[in-house]
Amino acid sequence: MQWDVEHILNLYLDDPEKLYRDMFNINLDEADQRLRDLRTSGQNFCCPVCYDDTSDYLSMECGHALCRSCYQGYLEAQLKDGPEVVLCRCPINPCKLIVSDENFRNLLTPTDYKKYQEYYKKSFIANNKRTKYCPAPNCNDAVIYPSMKQADIICKCGNDFCFKCMKPAHRPIACDLLAEW
Asked: What is the pLDDT of residues 11-38, one digit of tens each?
């Protein structure tokens, strides 16, 4: 699964409720009501995973909740699966909502959260046509270039390269001419 950031952003800006309904099968009004009911009931919550009654639980925008311990264990297990953690979904099937960054931040240790952020950054860069890693050895910086036209970029590490073909900067020669040369 790859991100199409522009497409998703446009869908969200057009109608966020439709996006949630179509992509994640979530009615935001119903989810909000479930969360309000749960929070205002004053009763303990029964975790659907461990069946403990607790007042220490977390929920997502979809309205599904788990006790803090189960949710933390779920996210830690997902993190061990590697880069696919950025597509981690609500643990309640068949919900398709992707777990928010806020829940990762609240439940993971600082070291694990940093690892999650690194996977997230790499995924975003790999799937965004306007963002690429600098090709210089030992440079981990990414650059953003809003146009897909040929352009020489100077990374903050000092490396200059062509954003389009990722070869050393070669203006005014076009990338295809450089390849033939």
From this structure: 666 776 676 667 666 565 665 566 566 6
CA–CA distance, 108 with 75 (Å, rounded to integer): 7
Q: What are phi and psi of 174, to 5 degrees?
A: -70, 155
Q: What is the DSSP string of 4-37?
A: -HHHHHHHHHH-HHHHHHHHH---HHHHHHHHHH
Fold held by 5-126: Herpes Virus-1 (3.30.40)
Q: Where are the domains of the chain?
A: 5-126, 132-180
Structure tokens at 82: 């590697």
Q: Is 31 within 8 Å of 63 (Cβ atoms)?
A: yes
Q: How many residues does the chain have?
A: 181
The tokens of 115 are what? 């690892």
Please say whether the beta carbons of 164 and 130 come within 8 A.
no
